[in-house]
């Protein structure tokens, strides 16, 4: 599985740790930035390359980290094809994939600790979309909303 990851300054340290953990676990990781710590960077600039990679299928899943996780979630969901959610507990980390085909997890580097971040990332990347009729019906409706239908 190929995983993309991005973070602004508020999630920079956590991103670096997740990259190391994912790499050690055998995943291919594409780091979309920030590549250096810059306290003045802006999360929309960081999330766009990751979001586009997720939407285009260049990566299988995406992970985004900012201070609260809210900013990257809002910005990511503006990119057609991205289904991002701010996640703070493990049930939603896997259920979002299983029922809603979530393809990008958003995390708050200033509000949850590194151990929980890793737990959420593992639940997210190990989950598989159920694809059952009712879940696909709902997903099709979400995709139609995105296309203004």
TrEMBL record:
SUPFAM superfamilies: Ribose/Galactose isomerase RpiB/AlsB. It is an enzyme of class 5 (isomerase). The keyword Isomerase applies. GO terms for molecular function: ribose-5-phosphate isomerase activity. Keywords: Isomerase. Its EC number is 5.3.1.6. The active site is at residues 66, 99. Belongs to the LacAB/RpiB family. This is Ribose 5-phosphate isomerase B. It comes from Arcticibacter svalbardensis MN12-7. The lineage of its organism: Bacteria, Pseudomonadati, Bacteroidota, Sphingobacteriia, Sphingobacteriales.
